[in-house]
Predict the 3D structure of the following.
Amino acid sequence: MADQVLTDERKSTCAYLAESRDVIQSAMDDEGFLVSLEASVDVIAQSLAAGGKLLTCGNGGSAGDAQHIAGEFISRLNYDRAPAAAIALTVDTSVITAVGNDYGYDKVFERQVLGLGRPGDVLLAISTSGRSPSILKAMDAGREKGLIVIGLTGRTGGSMPEKSDIIVHAPSDSTPLIQQVHIMAAHIVCGLVEERLFPRPATT
């Protein structure tokens, strides 16, 4: 019985890895996905170079991704370099609970974008479904304030495409697989921005 359980678990593991591989291959084969990453690199690099900043937000697992991404920009991804200005709007519990209590949870990111965002900044909004009210309101606030809005979402994207300057569709309808593509895409974008703004010292 124990051997059968292990065999079934191994099959499940391999099946999930195969699904992950197939989604990544789909992303590699999707010209729109690749173009959206290139456009994201351009606008983030231009904003940071001009003294702007990157704001990130998401709920649940996407909140973790938002913090992860901001951390890579502020700290480093591939090598030592100067910090790049990035703020995750998911980390200030006093702000989140105050806004949630006083105005409603759907405004927890909107209020921060309105208060912290400046024209030319970039908002990276993450929602696997594209239907999270707090994310959609943040995107509206970003457009109102003159930020460049990048949306990270799933295959359909809900209402996010119409609210985005750039939309990145992970080619999947599975939340875990979408999240995997999101963090992969963010690492690609961060790494390319890093190379563009902070070139590695020439080696002899």
Observations:
- The first helix runs from residue 2 to 29.
- Strands lie at 54-57, 86-88, 122-126, 148-153, 166-169.
- The chain has one domain: 31-197.
